[in-house]
Specification:
The chain has two helices and no strands. By secondary structure, it is an all-alpha fold.
């Protein structure tokens, strides 16, 4: 079995992606209600969080190939 010596440890990438996604989610939760109606703002924050997590996961998986 060969190990990869180049690049960052995949676990660190996953943790960093999760942390950035959480920060984006908190930022959206704080910023969007000031601009939109509360219910729509929370829904938009959740959708934005899902998009950020999905993009981070996609790029993490693509870098492993």
């Amino acid at each position: 079995m060969q190990t990869r010596t180049q690049g960052m440890d995949p676990r660190i990438k996953d943790i960093a992606a999760a942390a950035v996604s959480f920060v984006v989610f908190i930022a959206l939760l704080l910023a969007l209600p000031a601009v939109l109606d509360q219910g729509i703002a929370f829904l938009a924050a959740i959708i934005g969080f899902i998009i950020v997590v999905s993009v981070a996961g996609y790029f993490t998986i693509e870098k492993f190939r």
